[in-house]
Structure formats: structure tokens, C-alpha cells
Amino acid sequence: MTATASTVVLGMQWGDEGKGKIVDLICPAFEIVARFQGGHNAGHTVKFGDQHFALHLLPSGILHSTMQCVLGNGMVIYPPALFEEIDSLVDVGVDPRDRLFVCDRAQVILPTHVLLDQAREAARGADRIGTTVRGIGPAYESKAARSGIRCGDFLSNGLRQRLEAHLTMAGAQLSALGVDKVPSLDELEALCRDWGKRLAPYLADTTVRLNRALQKGHGVLFEGAQGALLDIDHGTYPFVTSSNSTAGGAATGTGVPPTHITGILGVIKAYTTRVGAGPFVCELEDDDGEHLRRRGNEFGTTTGRPRRCGWFDAVLARYSALINGVDTLALTKLDVLDELDEIKLCTAYRYRGEELRDFPSDLELLGQCEPVYRTFAGWKTSTVGSLTTDDLPENAKIYLRALEEEVGAPIGLISTGPRREETILIASPVLDRLVGGRLEDILAQRGS
Ligand code: IMP
User: Fold this and answer.
1) Residue 38: which of 261, 173, 232 has the closest Cα?
2) Where in the chain is the domain with CATH 1.10.300.10?
3) Is residue 430 within 8 Å of 410, Cβ to Cβ?
4) Smallest Cα–Cα separation from 82: which of 105, 100, 61?
5) What is the residue with the minimal CA distance to atom 12 of ligand 1?
6) Of ligand 1's atoms, which has the minimum distance to the CA of residue 136?
7) How far is the CA of 371 from the centre of ligand 1 (A)?
8) Which residues approach ligand 1 with their CB closer than 6 A?
9) Is the pTM of this model over 0.90?
């Protein structure tokens, strides 16, 4: 039976879990895909025909020709990045023009925000966060300081006045940081009017649009960016992004009430990675870490930076499952572990002789924790392209059972390669509910 699904797909670690592929796979069960936070700091590579696209702002669903895409109010939008993505899609015959809706309440990233991000990171020196330097944090700061510009302001008579207020604040901050080449009010206004002309056809009250669509029984997929541990409130603060990347962000970042969200699918990698600075208890700085990086192609889509790699951290994953209310896990990149002799899974942290099972909020304490590992024999067999769990080697099944037990959530999908058909779907009522009762259709479209 089909039912309206309103499902959040989010990353459970520090981002780069492979959400794009999972969204692409289950997209056909939904009519709309909405992003609710972040900006062009995110990045996922999607395949279309023989081409690879690095999308930063547009949700992966844009490549499905009937899918409507929403950029929600919780996002920060850098218009040139959006125009570039639209152009690159139009070039290959994917026209998003009638089905892309940008919330008029979403915040704009201005050149001042980019300058501030660069100057702040430089001023922090060795203590830098390792941001993507795209102005994300400063744009959210302006939002909270009530001196930001919203996409709808581009078309407003009040634009100049708002820009002036913005420039008073941002200009003072920039000059305190020693940046003197700041755009003038006239320059900023001209730029915004220009951006506004191009953005106008896409602007909409997406809050009303999404709620009406749900009332009509249309399925909505909320596509998270980054990962739970990069959440501004729940992540490893201050080494986090500036928005709520956890499940609650889907409600505040789109205007869809929490009571209308019906399920949470948590995407999690079979090991752990992180870009940027901050404590990482299971980090491997040895051959195993290098193997994960090379075999998993762990280099940032947005910045190209090598990702820090480590074993699966169940302490972190348990915390993530808890704060997101994850119904089912989508475990990605299992195949990256295929060649290893031994595989470790961190079940607890050791701090001053004590075992901690809960993820600590104190960053200094976290930095001093040692991982407590369970060691598993590797399976040394290719899992690529397995279609059911029966196809998996026995040692892989043992590892997966332990992972489920430690995290406290069932696995509903297992990805064993970048292609759509390289995915195991474990049929269950929960997974079927997450895709609005259309699991059979998804299985048929996955191919084999
Ligand atoms: P910002 O979001 O550019 O301010 O960067 C803050 C932190 O979040 C840095 O550690 C970034 O590397 C990290 N970050 C931001 N976006 C992503 C992402 O899409 N994947 C992984 N890490 C990210």
C-alpha cells in the first residue's frame, strides 16, 4: 500500500557518507526533494549517463526529470554557484527550470561573507576550523545578527537599506581583521540586482509549497548535507558547520512541522572519515588509514582535501542514532573493507581508565579518549555488486550484525559500490514505510 512519505535522509558521521547515491536510489518514491540547511560547502558526485557531476547546492534528485527540487529557507545560497550548476545541467540537456524552487526566505552568501570566512580562518592560524572558506559561517552569523539578506530581498525596494545595515556590520568586522578591500554599497547593490534578475523565476514561498504538496499526498524527501557530528548544536563544537544538519533541521529549515515528518534514514559509512580539524578518536595514521583513503577515494568533492580516515566508531554512531531518531541505517562503502586482513570497530572510549559508552560533549576530554576496539577477521572477498545479504561472505555478516547491535538500529540498505545496482535492499516494513510503500518499485528500478 502506498502512503505519503516524508522522509529525512541524513549523514550520521562527519559528512561524506554517500548520501547522494542513496537519495538517487530512493528518489522515485517521492515527488519532491528538499534541502534544508547548508550551502555550497556540501558536495556530492552524481553520475548521469557517462558524465559525473559535482553538485553542491542542487539536490541529487535534480537528475530525475520529473522531480521537483526545493532549496529551503534554512539554506545559505551563493547565487553564482547556483547559476553555474544550473548551466552545467542545461548543457547536458537536464533542464531544471520548471521544477526548481528557491525559498525567498533562504539567506544569501555575499562577497563580504566569503572575505570574512577567509580572514577569520587566516587569523585563527594553527587553530583554524578548516572551513570550506565559502562564506557559510559568516552568512549564518549575519542571519542570527539580523543583518543578512534573504533571496526575496533581491526584488524588494528595501534592498539598499538592508545592504547598508549589512555593510556597516560586516565592514567593521573586516577592517578589524585587516581587510580593506571591501565592496562598496553601490557595488553590492548592483551585484544583488543582477543576481535577483536571474534568480527571480526560481523564487517561491517553498514553505507553503511543501506543506500543500504533503496535504495532496505527494512524497517529500528531505536531503541533509554535511553530517550529524558537524551540527552546530550537537556536533563537535567548535569544529562544526554553522547549521543544524541533524533531523530537527529538516523542520526548521523547510517550514514543514516535525509532526509531518514520518521517518529518518541515517546514512553511515562502514568506517569513519572527517575533513577539517577537530578530535577524531578512531583516526588511523597508518597503512590501514591510507588503504581506506585510497580504496575509498576519500578526497573532498568541494575542496579536494584528503579526508582523515579511521575505523567505524559506534560511540559516535549511537549518539547520532539517538539524536536523529534514525529508523534504519543505510550503510555505505562496505566494499572498501574487502581486502583488509582485520577490521576493527570501536565500541567505547577509554578516558583515564574509565570506559565511556556515550559520546562526550567536552572536546578536550574527547581529544584524550582512546578507542576500545572489537577486532573482526576480514572477509578478503569482493562484496561489490552483492544484491542480497545472502551473497555476502560470512565474516562480513558477522561484522554487520555487530555494527547493528552496537549502534542500536537496523541496517536497511548496504552499498557495495558507486552504482545504483550495487546496493542491497533489506526488505522490512520500516524500510517500506520510509519509501511510502514503494519498496517493490525501488527494487525493480535498482536493476541487477
Ligand atoms: P564550513 O561549513 O565551510 O563552515 O566548514 C565547517 C566544517 O564543516 C569544516 O570542518 C568543513 O570541512 C566541514 N564541512 C562542511 N561541509 C562539509 C561536507 O559537505 N562534508 C564534509 N565536511 C564538511
Assistant:
1) 232
2) 107-200
3) yes
4) 100
5) 276
6) 4
7) 24
8) 14-16, 41-43, 129-132, 134, 136-137, 225-226, 230, 239, 241-242, 275-276
9) yes
Distance CA 375, CA 381 (A): 18
* CATH number of the domain located at residue range(s) 107-200 in this protein: 1.10.300.10
Active site residue 44: yes
Residue bearing the bigger pLDDT, 365 or 55: 365
Name 336's Cβ contacts closer than 8 Å, sequence gap at least 6: 270, 271, 292, 295, 296
Measure 431 CA to ligand 1 centroid, in angstroms: 29
In the chain, ranges of CATH 3.90.170.10 domains: 6-104+205-446
Catalytic residue among 40, 44, 64, 113: 44
How many Å lie between the centroid of ligand 1 and the Cα of residue 241?
6
C-alpha cell at 149: 539578506
pLDDT digits (tens, 9 = 90+) for 118-134: 999 999 999 899 999 99
Alpha-helical (H) ranges within 37-158 are 79-91, 111-124, 136-144
At 398, the amino acid letter reads I
The fold of 6-104+205-446 is Adenylosuccinate Synthetase; Chain A, domain 3 (3.90.170)
Query: In this predicted model, what pLDDT tens digit does every residue of 384-408 receive, in sequence order?
Result: 989 999 999 999 999 999 999 999 9
> Which of 372, 341, 375, 342 lies closest to 357 in space, CA to CA?
372
DSSP state of 91: H
